User: Which sequence fits this backbone?
């Protein structure tokens, strides 16, 4: 991504959008939201005017190839970063380089992906002009600015984030926020977490070849018309076709692809046709109008894990007489991994899903939560057993509501740790949670922790009950808790932006930090 092009497009933006506000005017929240929407609309219109200048086939091919290269670079960067980090004395500078490189790939990735999605929806181009590298860079910069301002708009619209925009006399817009410094710290720690996790798991056996359970297969079929086992076969057949033809990008008529699936998998016509359609992006005249069965949240780039995205639908069907199917083989593979990852982590969006599939996702959420609780509990048990520092008692899943015997409202203490000598009680709540990846998810993450009915308030109610009922809890666990001091914390499965965005009344600690510091992370409570 050329920074020069990005900045050039910001020049004279105040005039370009016909901003009605005065230079240096202090805007209200409502005015800021209105202005940000105006800027977003300006950039999407610029993108649409730009893309129709070029030959559709040439542009879609260039975009898909660009995305294939991004995926290739990501695949090798994890290993390269690992080597670079552990073979360099100045690890802090290495992390800075890794964060910078990853951020550039992210910018390229989301810009390329959204352009592919726009072109998939809007295919009525009359031009035969092939796009030049210079114009391609300009198009990428336009799209990046569009996405950045959609993100800015979400921040402005939030009650949790300080974010101001001001028309400047330079004819550009000024932005005032402390997010840059906050996100620098978060990205550094997130990259370090990724490196350590990758180095730990590099020799572990993968379960990728394990056969899915019958329940998983059937739930998958209720959502996608084929079982998960069949989906894996489908992905393999698409990749093998590209490899057989020695092509990064495949152009094939739908009928010929159906014949290929018949030869490779012995699939009937309808099964093949449904599979192709279910994992395809198609023509629909206007990109910003979602197709039947989808909502605006399924198409907008500022919403992550969208079901109607190139991230999950790697095939593009051209609106021609042959219904030409176009795909890059790397994205076919990665979209398969993405889909399975979202399902097994329980974060696949089920707004319009079948009951069977929704039930499966709920079970996955429960399963991942219990697994993380067990991992954290085992870590404490193993490390406390090796330590001579603690005379401790460790309990898991302490059910307070069974002690209270009233309407459930306190929940369980996931892990209860007593330091008997120093008389400390640690009430630990474990959360297996996916880190937010864009403004809307960050805001949702804040709401989950801080809204009146959500996690922190619930944990505080539990802590208040413990303080007022030491005798009852002590009887439950067989330990006199008189004179104990109570400390509460959340242990989360990965680094989260919220840790750095808000001052939290209860500590939120990534498990990666605990593994790094060992039991020494408890020292601050003494």
Assistant:
């Amino acid at each position: 991504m050329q920074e020069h092009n990005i900045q050039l497009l910001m020049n004279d933006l105040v005039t370009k959008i016909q901003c009605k506000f005065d230079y240096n005017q202090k805007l209200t929240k409502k005015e800021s939201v209105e202005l940000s929407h105006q800027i977003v609309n300006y950039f999407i219109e610029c993108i649409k005017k730009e893309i129709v200048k070029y030959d559709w086939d040439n542009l879609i091919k260039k975009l898909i190839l660009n995305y294939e290269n991004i995926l290739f670079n990501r695949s090798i960067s994890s290993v390269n970063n690992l080597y670079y980090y552990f073979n360099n004395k100045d690890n802090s500078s290495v992390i800075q380089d890794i964060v910078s490189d990853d951020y550039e790939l992210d910018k390229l990735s989301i810009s390329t992906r959204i352009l592919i999605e726009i072109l998939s929806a809007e295919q009525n181009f009359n031009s035969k002009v092939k796009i030049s590298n210079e114009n391609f860079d300009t198009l990428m910069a336009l799209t990046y600015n569009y996405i950045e301002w959609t993100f800015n708009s979400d921040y402005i619209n939030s009650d949790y984030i300080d974010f101001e925009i001001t028309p400047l006399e330079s004819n550009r817009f000024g932005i005032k926020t402390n997010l840059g410094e906050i996100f620098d710290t978060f990205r550094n720690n997130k990259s370090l977490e990724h490196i350590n996790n990758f180095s730990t798991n590099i020799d572990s056996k993968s379960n990728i070849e394990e056969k899915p359970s019958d329940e998983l297969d059937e739930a998958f079929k209720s959502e996608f018309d084929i079982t998960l086992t069949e989906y894996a076969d489908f992905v393999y057949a698409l990749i093998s076709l590209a490899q057989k033809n020695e092509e990064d990008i495949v152009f094939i008529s739908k009928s010929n692809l159906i014949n290929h699936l018949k030869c490779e998998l012995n699939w009937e016509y309808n099964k093949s046709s449904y599979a192709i359609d279910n994992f395809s992006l198609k023509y629909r005249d206007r990109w910003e109008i979602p197709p039947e069965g989808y909502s605006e949240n399924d198409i907008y780039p500022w919403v992550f894990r969208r079901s109607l995205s190139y991230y999950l639908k790697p095939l593009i069907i051209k609106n021609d007489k042959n219904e030409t199917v176009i795909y890059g083989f790397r994205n076919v593979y990665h979209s398969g991994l993405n889909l399975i990852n979202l399902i097994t982590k329980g974060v696949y969006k089920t707004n319009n899903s079948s009951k069977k599939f929704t039930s499966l996702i709920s079970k996955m959420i429960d399963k991942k939560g219990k697994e993380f609780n067990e991992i954290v509990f085992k870590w404490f048990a193993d490390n406390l057993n090796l330590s001579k520092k603690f005379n401790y008692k460790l309990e898991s899943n302490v059910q307070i509501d069974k002690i209270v015997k009233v309407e459930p409202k306190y929940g369980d203490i996931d892990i209860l740790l007593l330091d008997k000598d120093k008389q400390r009680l640690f009430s630990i709540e474990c959360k297996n949670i996916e880190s937010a990846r864009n403004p809307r998810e960050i805001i949702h993450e804040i709401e989950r922790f801080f809204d009146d009915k959500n996690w922190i308030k619930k944990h505080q109610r539990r802590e208040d009950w413990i303080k007022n009922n030491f005798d009852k809890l002590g009887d439950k666990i067989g330990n006199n808790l008189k004179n104990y001091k109570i400390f509460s914390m959340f242990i989360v499965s990965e680094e989260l932006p919220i840790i750095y965005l808000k001052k939290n009344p209860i500590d939120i600690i990534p498990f990666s930090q605990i593994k790094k510091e060992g039991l020494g992370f408890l020292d601050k409570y003494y």
